[in-house]
Amino acid sequence: MNMIRTLLFVLIMLSSVMAIGQVTVKEEPVVTQAMDTYMTRNLEENIIRGWRIQIITTDDRREMDLANQKFSMLYPHIKYEWQHNAPYYQVRIGAYEKKEDLEAFLLELKKEFPSAIPVQDDIKKEDLIESNG
Question: How far is CA 33 from CA 29, 41, 42, 46, 71, in A?
Fold first, then answer.
């Protein structure tokens, strides 16, 4: 009987503590305005600094074209981009927010593209979502 009273007492105490545990936060108007400004600017910013995998860098256009063809055959579902930064042609794939996100795929790519390396790049947010989604 004593055990039942103790248990009943504990349950009553827990329920009263839970009822008291509600917290109301009143945010200062200047904080609300700062958060609204931050969110607005974040939505407007379309570019982030992220990572891509550069599968080849060469000064030979034909070598770059061959790498593009090989990559397209091996990974037809992944788009690539190439750019010419004279005198070099560079082929980049993927769009990753963090370097750690690309490491597993980089190891796989190095089997066919031994010179593949991670590189930082400006990435559109929608590209980041597409490659990781």
Answer: 6, 12, 14, 22, 48
